[in-house]
Amino acid sequence: MSEFTGMDELLQDFLTEATELLSDVDNKLVELEKRPDDRNLLNDIFRGFHTIKGGAGFLSVDAMVSLCHRTENLFDKLRNGEMTLDPEIMDTILAATAIVQDMFVMLQQGRMPGPADAGVLAALDNVLEGGSPVKKTAAPAPAPAPVAAPAPAPTAAASSGNEPDWQMLYNALLDIDAPAAAAPAPVISAPAAVFEAADEPMPLTELAPPLKAAPVQNKPMSNSPQQLAASAETTIRIDTVRLDQVLNLSGEIGLTKNRLTTLRADVMSGKMDTTTLKALDDAISQLDLLVSDLQNAVMKTRMQPIGRLFQKYPRLARDLARQLGKDVELVITGEETELDKTMLEDLNDPLVHLVRNAVDHGVETIAERQAAGKPTKAIVELSAVQVGDHILIEITDDGRGMRPDVIRKKAVEKGLIDIETANSLDDKQSLQLIFMPGFSTKDQITNVSGRGVGMDVVKTNIQRLNGRIDIQSTVTEGSRFTISLPLTLAILPVLVVKVCDQPFAVPLAMVREIITIRGDQVQEVSGRATIVVRDEILPVKSLARLIGWEETQVPQFGVLMQSAEHSFILAVDSFVGRDDVVIKPLQNIRPRGVAGATLSGDGSVVLVLDMEDLLSSAGADNSAIKTSRFLDKVA
């Protein structure tokens, strides 16, 4: 449309502000349903919607103005006491806000929205005239992204069907320039949980795509969709105090650089007295401190409060509970906890499915809760807290919980594990079975769940963020899903180890402790070498054999590592130490088990290992250490 020519920036500003306003309005509407007499809350909702309508009118988005005007009139009647809020009226209001959100998406894509769905408009008009809302306009739950497992990146090994030649890879790395850092791959995620009542069949672990809001007609606009989309993805709000800190540190680094330049000239001219060398050492120490502070300050500019993500979920939980005939309250804590913006975007879909599963599978119906002696209102808690250099996100419900025996039985029925394996699993290990691809416990597909994909994709996407997800569950009491994530993906704490005189880096988040391997510690279990650590029998896996190399010496040390599924001891030759590294992606090559590369302090190339990928791609024969062979060497 010609009237939008040259107004791209105004349109983008409107979409940014209005999207946040609408999300805030949705959350306050959910609160209003609990406190319908709260006049201040209703006034806040009215002002927010009025601001959205005003912006739409300035940009001549007539369809949005018309829809917002009707909804605003309804809010006005509510705050003037001319009508009383009930669930049906709230469904109509939320159906309208869902269509406004769809209109935002169309504007972002460069399309001018047409008139809103006639059924929603009729329902609004009917309510304004004192009638009942049209039942078919009940607000659907917002739809998450389509469920799809992330496609694996092409690898050199995959192209040939063989394991990668690690030494050739190292040689190749020495001849290439270090590539620029790349943004983490976008996450497309799936739902999340398996729950089981004490005396009922256990429902499925995954969700089908939910019902979508009524379609909105549209016609093309002249704005460039690519330009608008790029603007939305690359912008971030930063507190000016943080920018001032970056600027001040940059100035101090400039002064230190000038000092070093002067000292360098003195040294080059032969001035090597004690005073000059001490001044040089002090200047380098000062520069090291300033660079570290600048790095932290820059990282903080990427940090955003996780509340911006959490604020989407009260509406989602409310709509799904209404659809399923349940009474559920979503309690949110820790909204001020900060996380890297890129990680916030990638976390959205996994958390959407975890919250939906908690409402769908985790909590019981009102009748079931009454029969069990529980309060009719179920509580789902979503919390975030920073612990050290990690963020813990928990999704907890007070529902029916999961039954490990039923999970084992279903896994056997579907051929995912055999009976012997099932009998050897304890309850904690049994809960981990829900992460297996294809795991399902429900025989019939509904419009909410039953598609056969779920926790395996959620787990995969969490691992792509260098995180892990754990489960705790008690039958009849509820379940807790705990996600542990690093504060940022830009810098990864690692433990640098050596095998065959070659350094490798493993994520420090997986490391529990370091032990010395002695021959008298090694025991044979099913023909494999194991070590007992505090009454826990742990298999010993050779890093050299995991990457397809022959061991040139007996492993002297072990790294006790914890993955999502199990613990194990990684046998290595020696250690270099702990480090914080910036991972550089490998251009046009992605060997299995390699997350990227980094440079050590001496300038040598160090591969950063993706342990989960390495373990899943390596067979038992080329990773586990045979007891007899190992004992012969360490004896």
The shape is flat
Question: What's the CATH architecture of the largest domain?
Answer: 2-Layer Sandwich
Rg computed from alpha carbons, rounded to a whole number of angstroms = 29 Å
Number of strands: 20
**Class from helix and strand fractions:** alpha+beta
Q: First CA to last CA: what distance?
A: 81 Å
CATH class of the largest domain reads: Alpha Beta
Instruction: Describe the oligomeric state of these chains in a short phrase.
Output: single chain
InterPro entries: Bact_Chemotaxis_CheA, CheA-like_dim, CheA-like_homodim_sf, CheW-like_dom_sf, CheW-lke_dom, HATPase_C_sf, HATPase_dom, His_kinase_dom
Keywords: Kinase, Phosphoprotein, Transferase, Two-component regulatory system
Function: Involved in the transmission of sensory signals from the chemoreceptors to the flagellar motors. CheA is autophosphorylated; it can transfer its phosphate group to either CheB or CheY.
GO molecular function: phosphorelay sensor kinase activity
What would a concise description of this structure say?
The protein has 21 helices and 20 strands. With 635 residues, the chain is α+β, with helices and mostly antiparallel strands.
